[in-house]
Amino acid sequence: MSPTPLDRSAPASTARLVRRELHASRAVPSVLTAILLIIVCLVLLFEAALKALGDNPFLVDVEAVAAWIGALPSGVPASLLGTSSFLLLVLGVLLLLLALLPGRRARYTIPNERAAVVVDAEVVASSLARRARAEAGVAPEQVLVTVGRSSVTVQIRPTSGIPVDAEAVRAAVADDLRRSSVEPEPRITVVVAESGVIGQ
Q1: pLDDT at residue 49, as a whole number
Q2: Quick check: 135 and 192 in contact, CB under 8 A?
Q3: What is d(CA 26, CA 150) in angstroms, rounded to the nearest whole number?
Q4: CB-based contacts of 6: which residues, under 8 Å, 6+ apart?
Q5: Taking the CB of residue 9, how many other CB atoms lie within 10 A of it?
Q6: Cβ(105)–Cβ(18) under 8 Å?
Q7: Contact yes or no for 158/199 (Cβ under 8 A)
């Protein structure tokens, strides 16, 4: 479920604030990656300086490491080499995904003339669950609503002997979404369990 576009007349600072609330910050992984790269570069620079001064290596012999890497895969078990390569691949993919994906949080905007309103998906799901259980005539624990980016799933366990009109529940949930002005309107799925609940 995509966020509702803000009014273009809203101040730029408000729009930036809302965007910050809707998207996860990349600051932590960026800082950690930068710190790791800085440490590696400082170690290499320090070892190069020691080499230029004719001193022994402090932490690692850069020439020996370079020779060892150039001689791969000889002298290294295939299982260890394969595991290391896989871990490096996973790390690279994770960093790439962090850089490319938008990092949307489970939050949504609701248009308001006086302020920018940001709500969590749990709040939307709670509102829809109340409307669904009122329409179905069941207890709160018999309704489970899951809100995704483009879909809403309503799961209902009916009371034994009392049928539930899935289409009426779907219409009620759609009406609640329209009243909250969440756009674009997500796809709504209502699932009614075959077995009922006794004593609710």
Answers
A1: 86
A2: no
A3: 24
A4: 14, 15, 18, 109, 111, 116
A5: 6
A6: no
A7: no
CA distance 3 to 7: 12
Beta strand 107-110 pairing with 117-120 = antiparallel
CA–CA distance, 3 with 133 (Å, rounded to integer) = 26
Whether the Cβ atoms of residue 129 and residue 121 lie closer than 8 Å to each other: no
Q: Are residues 132 and 48 in contact, defined by beta-carbon separation less than 8 angstroms?
A: no
- Residue 13 pLDDT > 80, yes or no? no
CA distance 196 to 157: 6
Contact between 29 and 95 (Cβ < 8 Å): yes
Token pair recorded at residue 25: 């910050």
- Whether residue 147 contacts residue 126, with contact meaning beta carbons closer than 8 Å, is answered with no
Question: C-alpha angle with apex 163: 160 to 169, nearest 5 degrees?
Answer: 125
pLDDT in tens, 21-74: 666 677 777 888 889 999 999 988 888 888 888 888 888 787 777 777 777 777
> DSSP class of residue 184?
S
Residue 123 burial (CB count, 10 A): 15
Q: Specify the pairing of strand 143-147 against strand 151-156.
A: antiparallel
Over pLDDT 90: what percentage of the chain?
18
CA end-to-end span of the chain, whole Å?
Answer: 33
Chain centroid offset of residue 166 CA: 30
